[in-house]
Each structure stands twice: as structure tokens, then as C-alpha cells.
Design goal:
Elements lengths: L2 H18 L9 E7 L2 E5 L13 E5 L16 H10 L4 E5 L2 H10 L4 E5 L15 E7 L5 H9 L7 E5 L3 E6 L2 H24 L3
Parallel strand pairs: 6-7
Antiparallel strand pairs: 1-2, 1-4, 2-3, 4-8, 5-6, 7-8
Bound molecules: ligand L4RZE5RM and zinc ion.
Length: about 200
């Protein structure tokens, strides 16, 4: 198998696992994986990402322009994935809309960030010290995608990270598909945990 086929299979695996979690409501969400310095695979726009077809992904260049030979259109949010690969050595970027990430983004949107501390799952984000804390930036949901990508790009500097888009969703990236998915699951765990605690405490 060549690199392209290997990466295609990696992305298909992640897509299947996120679909099993029901993290692609209403055709939302987009995923990408780096193939080489000049190209990455990204999900086709507007499709039900729970479905598996031979046309789920398209190859695009480093600027997000479709490379000939693939059906459909690249994700409308491809420019955010361009920011990740252009600014870091990340290998995979995942974007999902969940109720939990939307609730957290609205609760803390005015603050521009949300911080979690004292939770064991933070170790999954690579932070192993006691009472480690993690902060996720929250940006406005600009309808203009180049503007959204520009704002998003201000928070993209390390090979692994996450940004919440207010009342929209989260984009998480990591060195490879395994790491990006691990981070995404850890962030969604934190969001769900935090919301449940707030409800139980009546705040
Ligand atoms: C139907 S949700 C609106 C678009 C969006 O935010 C999304 O994640 C999916 O867009 P795509 O073009 O990648 O299908
Ligand atoms: Zn989206």
C-alpha cells in the first residue's frame, strides 16, 4: 500500500469511529489527514459523514485547492485545515459539532476561552503534572470562511491543539490520526463532565 492509501484508510477509520459516537449530526463535521508537505486528504463537503463511500475524501493542495481526479467538493471549512498544516507539523485535523462543545462555547464565549483543571483525563492531552490545567480558546463563528480561518490561525502554533468556534464546533489537531482522536475524545469528555457538574450543582 502506498502512503496515499495508508492515509486514506487512517482517515476512514477515524471517520467511522467518530460516526459511531454520533458526532456528525446534520452533515456537520470535517476531517483531514496530511499525505505529504504538498497535499492532504479532506472530507467531501455536504455529505453525511456517517455514510461510507469511495468518494468520502478528496486530495487538496497545501492551499486547500482540489487536485484533479476526485469527485465532489472539498469541505467548506478546508481553509481551517490549511491553517493547521501550514503552521505546524500536525498530521491530522478533526472538526465536529456536538451539543456539549456548543454549550461550552456559548457559556464561555464572552471570556474567549475556557479552562479545565483537576481532571485525570487531562493526562490524555499530554499534561501529566498534578492539578494540570488546559485552556481552549473560543473564537467567533464568522460566516466568511477566510475570516474564520484567519482568526482560527491565530491559535494554531503547536503540533497539537484545539479551538472552539462559538455555537459551531471544535477543531482539534495532532501529530497523527490516533493523537488527534485521543485529544478530541478528551476534550469532549471535559465538556460533558463540566456541563453535568454545573447542572448537578445548580449553577
Ligand atoms: C451542516 S453544518 C454547516 C457546515 C459545517 O459547519 C460543517 O462542519 C460541514 O461542512 P462541510 O462543507 O465540511 O460538509
Ligand atoms: Zn463545522
Amino acid at each position: 500500500m502506498n502512503t496515499m492509501q495508508l492515509r486514506w484508510n487512517d482517515l476512514a477509520d477515524v471517520k467511522r469511529e467518530l460516526a459511531a459516537r454520533d458526532w456528525f449530526p446534520g452533515t456537520s463535521g470535517n476531517l483531514s489527514i496530511k499525505v505529504d508537505d504538498a497535499s492532504f486528504l479532506v472530507t467531501a463537503s455536504g455529505k453525511d459523514k456517517r455514510k461510507e463511500t469511495n468518494e468520502d475524501f478528496l486530495l487538496v493542495d497545501a492551499q486547500g485547492e482540489a487536485i484533479e481526479g476526485y469527485a465532489g467538493k472539498p469541505s467548506a471549512e478546508t481553509l481551517l485545515h490549511v491553517e493547521v498544516y501550514g503552521k505546524t507539523d500536525a498530521g491530522c485535523s478533526l472538526h465536529v459539532h456536538t451539543i456539549d462543545n456548543n454549550v461550552i462555547s456559548e457559556l464561555y464565549g464572552d471570556k474567549g476561552e475556557v479552562t479545565f483543571a483537576g481532571q485525570e483525563i487531562i493526562k490524555a492531552l499530554g499534561l501529566w503534572e498534578e492539578y494540570a490545567q488546559v485552556t481552549v480558546p473560543i473564537i467567533s463563528n464568522y460566516a466568511d470562511i477566510p475570516k474564520l480561518a484567519e482568526e482560527f490561525g491565530k491559535y494554531v502554533s503547536t503540533d497539537a491543539g484545539a479551538v472552539l468556534i462559538r455555537n459551531h464546533g471544535i477543531t482539534v489537531w495532532g501529530r497523527d490520526a490516533f493523537e488527534a482522536k485521543k485529544f478530541l475524545e478528551a476534550y469532549e469528555f471535559l465538556f460533558s463532565w463540566h456541563i453535568k457538574l454545573l447542572i448537578l450543582k445548580g449553577r
